[in-house]
Amino acid sequence: MRTRRQVGLYLHIPFCRSKCHYCDFNSYSNQGDLIPAYLKTLKREIERYSRDASLRVKTIYIGGGTPTVLSGGDVADVLNTIRGCQAGSARQAGSARQAGSARYEIGKEAEITIEANPGTLDEFKLMELKAAGINRLSLGLQAMDDFLLSRIGRRHQVKDGLNAYYSARQAGFDNINCDLLFGLPAQKLSDWERSLTTVLDLEPEHLSLYCLTLDPGKQWNARLAKDRPTEEKELAMYDLAIDYLTENGYEHYEISNFARPGYRSIHNRIYWQNEEYLGLGAGAWSYLDGRRYSNPSHPKAYIENGTKGEWPAADEESLSTRRTIGEAIMLGLRLVEGIKVAEFNNRFKIKLGNMFSFPIRRLERDGLLEINNGHLRLTRRGLHLADTVALEFI
Ligand code: SF4
């Protein structure tokens, strides 16, 4: 029997109720009228790939934008299309059969995540999402301080975040990630500590902590950049988080990610291990057979193409072996355990230590990299300079 290859499936929902000041994601406000046509196109794209019988879907991740601007019914409909049984729409289930849809094979225990924003959730929607098969919720709390939330242009307040979290528990979600940002304009170390303690009191299974990144060329970003903390303060915030969370039972397993034992993100690990993924929706990237390619970014262009049944890549590149190895190192070093050297050598038929002996020795000497128990990994100091280290391998 032919072995199916495992992929992570990413679905992009590019709609938001408003645009946050710092946002550089592929997201659009005031385009809600496109949602019905967008979902139709997304389902077409799902069916298109479902004819490839070689794919086994290991995880599903619905990201954005704000996927929870959709109704629970719409999310269920999309997931049912993936399952090839699209409940409630006999016509479309029939058309999938006519098209010879091979149906995706989805593991029983597949992790199915949706990104959610407070202010777009209520108990009923959360119950619908749970019933649709979503088993992991990633909640964009970002800060536990109303002043900071409004500075960065978030629509919600702390109380909305707390309500969303409690409602999700009420609806039965037992795997919740909370996103927090640090390095916010005028944010003090004590503000950050308060955000961390407040979120920790909620006892989420997982936390993702990102330092705010700004593009000074953009109008709002330039304004925000004016009174952001110094780089030393940002590093102090990061260090505080590592110490505080690990003391409180979280495993620091990736540069920006922390989990209670047994709750590491399975989907994101696919990226960090440079494995294959299929990205559907506007601007989504796929990585299959050494080729990386994306859909057009704007939902209108994506809908236009999909309606014509055309799926040209907006951007694509075939990765050379050297580039693939370099990227695998860059991504693998994001994991705190690092790269299992023997496994890596076996996968790429190389000797990592020989191929990169010069940068590895230099980075070891500078205290940024270490080889420990057969793993090549960043040191604590190296975690601060991960991007600089990565450049040595690309
Ligand atoms: S909710 Fe997220 S994707 Fe939407 S505008 Fe804000 S940061 Fe961007």
Comma- or semicolon-separated keywords:
three-stranded antiparallel sheet, pyruvate-formate lyase- activating enzyme, 2 domains, Arc Repressor Mutant, subunit A, binds iron/sulfur cluster, 394 residues, alpha/beta, 42% helix, nine-stranded mixed sheet
List the helices and strands and how they pair.
Blueprint: E1 5-13, H1 35-50, E2 55-64, H2 72-83, H3 90-98, E3 105-116, H4 123-132, E4 136-142, H5 146-151, H6 158-170, E5 176-182, H7 189-202, E6 206-211, H8 219-225, H9 231-247, E7 251-254, E8 257-259, H10 266-272, E9 277-280, E10 285-288, E11 291-294, H11 299-307, E12 315-318, H12 321-332, E13 339-340, H13 341-348, H14 352-355, H15 357-365, E14 369-372, E15 375-378, H16 380-384, H17 386-391
Parallel strand pairs: 1-2, 1-9, 2-3, 3-4, 4-5, 5-6
Antiparallel strand pairs: 6-8, 7-8, 10-11, 11-12, 13-15, 14-15
The structure holds iron/sulfur cluster.
Please explain how this structure is put together:
By secondary structure, the protein is of the alpha/beta class. It folds into 2 domains: 268 residues, tm_1862 like domain (pyruvate-formate lyase- activating enzyme); 73 residues, Arc Repressor Mutant, subunit A, CATH 1.10.10.920. The chain has 17 helices and 15 strands. A 9-stranded mixed sheet has the order 7-8-6-5-4-3-2-1-9, sandwiched between helices. A 3-stranded antiparallel sheet has the order 10-11-12, with no helix packed on it. A hairpin with a 2-residue loop joins strand 10 and strand 11. The longest helix is centred in the middle third of the chain and has 17 residues. The protein is globular. Bound molecules: iron/sulfur cluster. Iron/sulfur cluster binds next to loops.
